[in-house]
TrEMBL record:
This is Helix-turn-helix transcriptional regulator. It comes from Streptomonospora arabica. Residues 33-90 form the HTH cro/C1-type domain.
Length: 276
């Protein structure tokens, strides 16, 4: 099977960007008399910190088809001060561990569909790793969109945020919401390189949305399981919500998203919305 993700080139670019973002002073490295021509660490410094040769770092960053061992990947993660999600991304790129099957679910298991319905009146929906929306309750449909009116290919949270006219201004902090979603999507992309549908979505977003292309190029990797967002609903006004993302143990590539009002005013707005 042909890979839809060129993990060799992505690994090269990821290592370069992580190296260039580091400040040598934060790592206690000695000052150099000669001015640095590029930001961040030199390859020689990464090699020393990771316990590998400079030539090895050069070949990795040139995408010359190396597959680092677990020991080397651990050394690179330490040297580059990778956060946990970035470390997981590095391991996925080097194919040292894989997460789950490469064929995502296209429908919710009956038990999960019942759970989403039972979570009412809290808005809830279930997505697979590429943000396809598998099932939702009525409260989530009233808050976001009537998903039943959309063709199945458009029932994707990232597609809606980027492409649907109503959703473009739905998040008060639109860039923050996109950044978060793109960082999650990049982690899923590395974990599922044979997922042609996801690769096609990313290509569509890259071609059709300059903001997505700009943020995707930054190569942020993070899977955020909880937080707070302010929503701009066309009928109910501003709604401040906490969100929680849970992973079913038997369906670990799926994500259960639950919203809860963050304050009394937001709860009142939700109550009015549900009784319309």
């Amino acid at each position: 099977m042909t890979r839809t993700v060129d993990t060799t080139q992505e690994l090269a670019a990821f290592l370069r960007t992580r190296r260039e973002r580091l400040d040598p002073r934060d790592l206690g490295l000695p000052a150099r008399r000669q001015a640095r021509r590029t930001p961040g660490l030199r390859r020689e410094e990464v090699a020393e910190l990771a316990g590998v040769s400079v030539d090895y770092i050069v070949r990795l960053e040139q995408g010359r088809g190396l597959r680092p061992s677990v020991h080397v990947v651990e050394g690179l993660a330490r040297a580059l001060r990778l956060a946990r999600h970035e470390r997981d991304y590095l391991f996925n790129l080097t194919r040292q561990h894989l997460s789950g099957a490469d064929k995502p679910a296209t429908a919710a298991a009956p038990s999960l569909a019942r759970l989403v319905a039972d979570l009412a009146p809290q808005p809830a929906m279930l997505m697979n790793h590429r943000f396809d929306i598998l099932t939702w309750n009525g409260e989530m449909a009233r808050l976001l969109l009537d998903f039943d009116t959309l063709p199945p290919p458009q029932r994707n949270a990232m597609w809606l945020c980027l492409m649907h006219p109503r959703m473009r201004d739905f998040y008060v902090d639109r860039e923050g919401a996109l950044r978060e979603g793109i960082a999650h999507l990049r982690a899923a992309w590395a974990a599922h390189p044979e997922d042609e549908a996801m690769t096609g979505l990313i290509a569509e977003f890259m071609a059709g949305d300059e903001e997505f292309a700009r943020l995707w190029a930054e190569r942020d990797v993070e899977v955020n399981g909880r937080g707070r967002k302010v929503l701009r609903h066309p009928d109910a006004g501003l709604i401040d919500v906490h969100f929680e993302v849970l992973m079913p143990l038997q369906d670990s590539d799926q994500r259960l998203l639950i919203y809860r009002a963050a304050d009394d005013a937001s709860q009142s707005a939700l109550d009015r919305l549900y009784t319309r």
